[in-house]
Amino acid sequence: MSALNIRHVNKTFGSTQVLKDISLAIDSGEFLILVGPSGCGKSTLMNTIAGLEPVTSGEIRIGDEDVTWHTPSERDIAMVFQSYALYPSMNVRQNISFGLEMRKMPKAQREEAVSRVAELLQITPLLDRKPSQLSGGQRQRVAMGRALAREPQIYLFDEPLSNLDAKLRVEMRTEIKKLHQRLGTTIVYVTHDQIEAMTLADRIAVMRDGEILQLGTPHEVYNDPVDMFVAGFMGSPSMNFLSVTLVSQASGYALQVHDEEQGGTALTLPWPVERGTQELSARVGEHLILGLRPEHFLEDDAIQETSGEGTRLEVTATVVEPTGADTLLQAWLGGNEVTARLGPKSRVVAGDRVALRADLSRAVLFDEKTQRRLA
Amino acid sequence: MANMVRRHTTSARLWRAGLYTLLIVAALVYLLPLVVMLLTSLKPLDDIRAGGLLSLPSTISFEAWSKAWSSACTGMRCDGMSGYFLNSIAIVVPAVAISSFVGALNGYVLTKWRFRGANLCFALLLFGCFVPFQVVLMPMARTLGWLGLASSTSGLVLVHVVYGIAFTTLFFRNYYVSIPDEMIAAAKLDGAGFWRIFWRILLPVSGPIITVTVIWQFTQIWNDFLFGVSFAGFDSQPVTVALNNMVNTSTGVKEYNVDMAAAMIAALPTLVVYVLAGKYFVRGLTAGSVKG
Fold it and tell me: Which InterPro entries does the record match to this protein (chain B) (predicted)?
């Protein structure tokens, strides 16, 4: 049985439709992430789940109960907000136990719940402080504690980490993941940060313009994007899109990379034989978009042992960005500027000629107009 | 700005000296009426007839104060300001409490339980701030008569509440707008309803604006003369009306020291409220509810 079931939910504000026929089911214990650019409707969807916004049409079920028209307090839900939304006049203890008090839990049990949660989140020494006396990370913990104390059926996280600095964000991310693994809670989590989505989720729903474009595991969404938007949104640096023409060769299909400046074809990349589909044969001669992730490029030296894999390319590095763990290289490939992710040992500097190999076995092809995935 | 790098040249020092002189002189000018009032109220009548306004009293006497409080004549009655002072308190306390409470409630609804037309509603209320006292005199008199509250303390309280709600709503609405909606959403999810959120979440962080509203309303209502003189009955007149009656009396010797003492008595409560509550003006009690 699914913990949360959203069926054909629509939401309009005035004449703008912010949620378009959203359907979604989440299993108990699942960690679902709603991700998308700002204005895609992910926060609105979360607010409708919480009952903070009424739906225009559709149905929301929690467990086997229809809660579409239940007030927020009647739904067994807790929420962690981006601004933490702690009650400034109450100390940490009161903040955590307020929801329990509202639900008329006896005092002894409330205190037990507070100390359990405080221990779990390591905030026991802070219990008597006011929110104004806490750091950002501590406030974040208290906000989570307030949700955890209630032990609701579903937790909603609304961009909980975006107010933290980079280092703390990574720490808290790990901690949320640990908590989820330990407690087996059902979580719906909104973020615009695709790294958070990739690292935390059991499943990701990528949203745009009030629609769910793709719903799948992080692996599926990353490696099998349904269209160019999903492909470009997930992954950092984002996927390279090259404008190509599909041609038919004796050995199978190949892609001619255009060179807009000089006109004509800069180079030809053979398309893996095993990935040739029926649909491609109808597209021969058409302009398509080739999607190659930065890590699909390999520095030639690095794969000398397995030479023959992929297509050898020679490019001139325009920008080199060492990040420590790896080195990002930008170069012109035909008329397209592409980013390649090289190993940390790479000693390339800007201006160098670099030999790369493109591993097309994991590349993806899109229709130029509809931006839908072809192969 | 003491926390700024500055060059200490002679001309800069001269400027500074000139600036302070100007400010001190201005402060003295503003203080002068109060000084004159205080001095006059402490002088015996002979001193007043003999000397200038600023001369010091030959003997300090509180007789004028005690007469103003308990035995000066206001119109027909000669039992001082004390009764009227209590009348004023009986008007001000409930009027301030009710108008502030209703204002807080209005502000809460207008910002956190928004409804269709909330902005129009607020705009109309705002309009109430600009309605002059004189305009409402006649309709208010009719209304009070119709309600059976004419010439009573309750009637005056009602008038001041009605007139004050526009201001108190404005104050609270603008304060609550800055309180994050997420805090209210969190309380809703925690299971708190309309009144619980108001009492437990919002009011405890409303200290600064409650102070501002109370000071404003107290000053307005305590200092009001027009409504008092128009709607008060013989035994519900506020202190401002009594002061006028005392000072404008045309019989007997003009006792300036008693007049001044009475004026000081009438003005004292607003000063006291300001001094006592003023320090809460600047406290930001919401610090820490959101990212800081």
Answer: MetI-like, MetI-like_sf
**A193 & A333 share domain:** no
Phi–psi pair at B152, nearest 5 degrees: -130, 160
Which chain A residues are Cβ-neighbours of B187 within 8 angstroms?
Answer: 87, 98
Is the same domain home to B86 and B56? no
pLDDT above 60: residue A345 = yes
Could A72 and B185 be called an inter-chain contact, meaning their C-beta atoms sit closer than 8 Å?
yes
Q: Find where tokens 């086997």 sit.
A: A64
Whether B247 has its CB under 8 Å from any CB of chain A: the answer is: no
Place of tokens 């404005």: B170
pLDDT given for residue A79 in this prediction? 93
Measured between CB atoms, does A168 come within 8 Å of chain B? no
Q: Is the CB of residue B207 less than 8 Å away from at least one CB of chain A? A: no
> Among the three residues A212, A233, A254, which one is the final residue of a domain in this structure?
A233
Chain B CB contacts of A134 under 8 Å are 288
Same domain, A61 and A190: yes
Contact A76, A154 (CB under 8 A): yes
Convert the pLDDT of each residue in B79-128 to its tens digit. Answer: 888 889 999 999 999 999 999 999 999 999 999 998 888 889 999 988 88
Tell if the CB–CB gap between A85 and B186 is shorter than 8 Å. yes
B288 backbone φψ class: left, alpha, beta (φ>0; ψ -120 to 50): left
Q: Chain A contacts of B191, Cβ < 8 Å?
A: 73, 99, 102-103
- The edge-to-edge listing of strands for the beta sheet with A16-27 is A16-27, A2-13, A57-62, A65-66
Would you call A135 an interface residue with chain B, using a CB distance cutoff of 8 Å? no
In which domain, by residue range, is B17 found?
A: 10-61
Q: Do residues B57 and B86 share a domain? A: no
Q: Side-chain half-sphere of B178: how many Cα atoms within 13 Å?
A: 11
Examine the domain organization and report whether A17 and A143 are in the same domain: yes
pLDDT tens, position by position, A140-177: 999 999 999 988 999 999 998 888 888 888 988 998 99
Chain B from 164 to 183: CB within 8 A of any A CB: 180, 182-183
Q: Which of A177, A200, A233 is the last residue of a domain?
A: A233
Residues A28 and A174 occupy one common structural domain: yes
- Whether residue A375 is contained in a domain is answered as no
**Closest CA–CA distance from residue B244 to any residue of chain A (Å):** 46
Taking only the tens place, the pLDDT of each residue in B223-264 is 999 999 899 888 888 999 988 888 887 677 788 888 899 999
* Residue B182 with chain A: CB contacts under 8 Å: 81-83, 85
Q: Which residues constitute the domain of residue A201?
A: 2-233
Check pLDDT > 60 for residue B286. Answer: no
Q: Which residues of B touch A139 (CB under 8 A)?
A: 288, 291
CA distance A43 to chain B (A): 12
In a shared domain, residues A272 and A189:
no
Interface contacts A/B by beta carbons within 8 Å: 92
Residue A84 in contact with partner chain B when CB distance is under 8 A: yes
This model's pTM is above 0.95: no
| Cis peptide, bond prior to residue A322, ω within 30 of zero | no
CA distance B179 to A140: 19
Whether residues B37 and B100 fall in one domain? no
Is A78–B201 a contact, with Cβ atoms under 8 angstroms apart?
no
Q: Is the pLDDT of residue B285 over 70?
A: no
How many Cβ atoms from other residues are within 10 Å of residue A278's Cβ? 6
- Residues 6 or more apart whose CB falls under 8 angstroms from that of A297 comprise A338, A340, A341, A342, A356, A357, A358, A359
Residue A65 is part of a domain; what is its CATH number?
3.40.50.300
Judge if B103 and B42 occupy the same domain.
no
Complex prediction ipTM:
0.83
User: What integer pLDDT is reported at residue B284 of this predicted model?
Assistant: 39
